[in-house]
Amino acid sequence: MMATRIRLRPWQHQALEKFNASERDDFLAVATPGAGKTTFALTAASQYLAGTRGRRLVVVAPTQHLKTQWSDAAARFGLHLDPAWSAREGTLPGDVHGIVTTYQQVATSSVELSRLAAGAFVIFDEVHHAGDDRAWGTAIMAAFANAGRRLSLSGTPFRSDVTPIPFVTYHLDEAQPDFEYGYGDALADRGVVRPLFFPRIGGFMEWVAPDGAQVAATFEDDLTRDLANQRLRTALSLEGEWMSTVLAQANERLQTLRQVHPEAGGLVIAMDQTHATGIAELLRKLGTRAVVAVSDDPGASDRIARFSESSEPWIVAVRMVSEGVDIPRLRIGVYATNTSTELFFRQAMGRLVRWTRGVPRQRAWCFLPDDPRLRSHADSLATQRRHSLAKRRRDDDDERGDEPAFDSPDGADEADQMSLFAVIGAVAQHEPAESEGVFADDGDDGDDDDDGLDDDRGVDLELVAPPTPDGRVRAQPVPGEAQGADAKPQLTARQRRSELRDRNASLARDLARRANMTHAQVNRELNRLSGVTRISEATEAQLQRRLDEANRWSRRVR
């Protein structure tokens, strides 16, 4: 069998060794966003499937967009995963390793998935989503109870507040990872994630509460939970001045940053679709462009993909870019959502810390409302950053002082009854401490020329290309992290299959017209000639043979 050498980061290799040594069917790996969970998981899957004909791979992802992202990532490992699978399609083609589905889809297709996943290797991406709906957990148990191995991934530690997550071990309501790699660990390793800084913006907000009372407060005032939620909504509202002021500060920093990193981009996480559209308009008034990507838009996934490959300055999203989406060029963030849970916050920050090889001094910034809850989440990450960078300075015998305690001058939401809520005004009170210059001396991050794995810290591994259930071995090179894992192949197996299906459909329509036959008659004859039972179950070779038969038929009826 064909083998390809890949390079794993040290933590990936350690996690893989622990996974392979485990005798349990279930394994939970918690690794900070941007660290390379996908590479670790696909390496483990490749080893499991190698030399084991007939085994399938199933990946369960949180969103539709991530289905395609996982499929493309798997293609770089010689693994062909179908992201468009549905329960009505029946048996998978023999030259397909498996599928990518979503937690929502599992809830409606658990019976079909239980047959497909028997003995399979199953990856649960951001497994905490399995507890988003009580019915989802039941469906996941039913669908994957008979899997061969189950690998659960998460970008942040999580608790079981209401619904325990299937296949996860708990102690005192806390999920117990089998392997954990935090943000501080990744920073200390250098060349894995970026240091993230938090300019926090205060403000003076005035609003009419749902009970009709007029309220005025700053972020320093101690308020009830409901009033704190209303205060945050007021600051983020398009009707006040706070939002436009913060966007102007963030855009100024991005434009300065793009002088040395021309492809650098910014992300604004908005409250809802209307809010996202309004923010894009505010950015337009500042003289800059913004791509809007919201889940209600069927073209949002394609828009995110184009933005990732472009040099467009800004993207505005609600939740689609907050978790799992890989856009390494994002360097500036604006947290403009009223979602204040720590899990969502950490996942969103993960969009800004992804490493880009060859770019010096890779700091990232996220502009935040100085809300006490967000302040607490940010300080938790900043503490890890300060500890890691301080340790790095000690290791390098650098005697410069520590960074300031905070990144500002001062050092799952409940639904509100908002029908009578009204914004009166919101004004930003001060600029963040770091706004005077992108490259101000706010701590030596030590990563000026560190490309991550160009030294002896990486671990080389021979990875055997897994056979498909029909016994084929794809000769797809497997790039490692250091060999440019971000580079995509020119055409994936999924794309080739889609192209063959489109060409088959086009020729069938043309033949039906010229041969004076129904479309169904043409398809039945082409299937008979090429040995195809159902198009959805056809291999690439069968689709090509069917296309050849269609071309020959077409020449006869000219």
Task: Give a short overview.
The protein is α/β, with parallel strands linked by helices and 558 residues long.
Written account of the structure:
With 558 residues, the protein is of the alpha/beta class. The protein has three domains: 3-187 and 455-479, P-loop containing nucleotide triphosphate hydrolases (Rossmann fold, 3-Layer(aba) Sandwich), CATH 3.40.50; 200-428, P-loop containing nucleotide triphosphate hydrolases (Rossmann fold); 495-556, no CATH class. The protein is built from 16 helices and 21 strands. Strands 4-5-3-6-7-2-10 form a seven-stranded parallel beta sheet. Strands 11, 12, 15, 16, 17, 18 and 19 form a seven-stranded parallel beta sheet that branches. It has a three-stranded antiparallel beta sheet with strand order 14-13-20. Helix 6 links the parallel strand 6 (121-124) and strand 7. The two termini are 46 Å apart. Mean pLDDT is 80; it is low at 391-418, 433-455 and 475-489.
Strand order of the largest sheet: 4-5-3-6-7-2-10
Tally of alpha and pi helices: 16
Low-confidence stretches: 391-418, 433-455, 475-489
User: What share of the residues does DSSP label as strand, in percent?
Assistant: 15-25%
Task: Provide the descriptors you would attach to this structure in a database record.
7-stranded parallel beta sheet; about 15% strand; 16 helices; Rossmann fold; 21 strands; alpha/beta; about 550 residues; 3 domains; single chain; about 35% helix; globular
